[in-house]
Amino acid sequence: MLTEQEQMKKAVGEKAATFVKDGMKVGLGSGSTVYWLVRKLGELVESGVNIEGIPSSKQTEKWAHEFGVPLTDFSKVKELDMTIDGADEVDENHQLIKGGGAALFREKIIAQAAKELIIIVDESKMVTHLGEYPLPIEVLPFAWERTANEISKLGCVPKLRTVDGEILVTDNGNYILDCPFKKILDPDQLNKELKQIVGVIETGLFIDMTTKVIIGDKETVTVID
Ligand SMILES: O=C(CO)[C@H](O)[C@H](O)COP(=O)(O)O
Question: Is 33 in the pocket of ligand 1 (CB under 6 A)?
């Protein structure tokens, strides 16, 4: 029995799959909402639709194998027709905070490589201002303490992400700093300032990338272009 939130995630994941057409190359995001997308894409493939995906995490790659979604990579594909991904926060301008699942670096690569970025979320992710959700930032393990100190000068106290008492290591071999900025008034400016800090690999701020948001609430699924 799915919880109400799981049902919303399933609904938006399955809705996003209706935008995937025969012959498309699709970037596959990460997270529990994307799980439902990949599952649905597996059904499409089984029914004869010919698609190929590029996954943004080892977990998504595993799901693609499980559900029979063929995969490719950037040695064979220059551009993706679309990328479909979840998010941790979406503001009124469709700027995003991502990286709750620690996959933000590869997620940003597949987002940038795509002609269209479709974001799938339940209504709890919609916010007026970004920042209540601590911003994930992927940093180089070397001198991460110094990088954290530089980031703190921009107005937060970064916290090194751990799991079960162990430092979380991303699929790329890096660390994640969760940075509670609380209220980000100018996400574009903050992103630019963060990217200037040596040691910052990538930020979870996705600026001017979203082309469509699919939002699920208890009763409906809404698509906003
Ligand atoms: O950015 C992400 C992973 O790095 C996810 O898209 C984000 O955390 C949302 O996940 P979920 O669909 O499980 O709520």
Answer: yes
Beta strand residue intervals within 72-225, DSSP E: 82-85, 89-90, 96-97, 117-122, 135-139, 159-160, 162-163, 166-167, 175-179, 200-203, 205-206, 212-216, 221-224
Ordered structural domains, the chain, with CATH: 4-127+208-224 (3.40.50.1360), 135-202 (3.30.70.260)
Average pLDDT, the chain: 97
Query: pLDDT digit string (tens) for 113-122?
Result: 999 999 999 9
Q: Tell whether the model's pLDDT for residue 9 goes beyond 90.
A: yes
CA atoms within 13 Å, Cβ hemisphere of 143: 10
Looking at residue 218, its pLDDT comes to: 87
The residue contributing the CA closest to ligand 1 atom 7 is 87
Quick check: 120 and 177 in contact, CB under 8 A?
A: no
Phi then psi for residue 202, to 5 deg, are: -165, 155
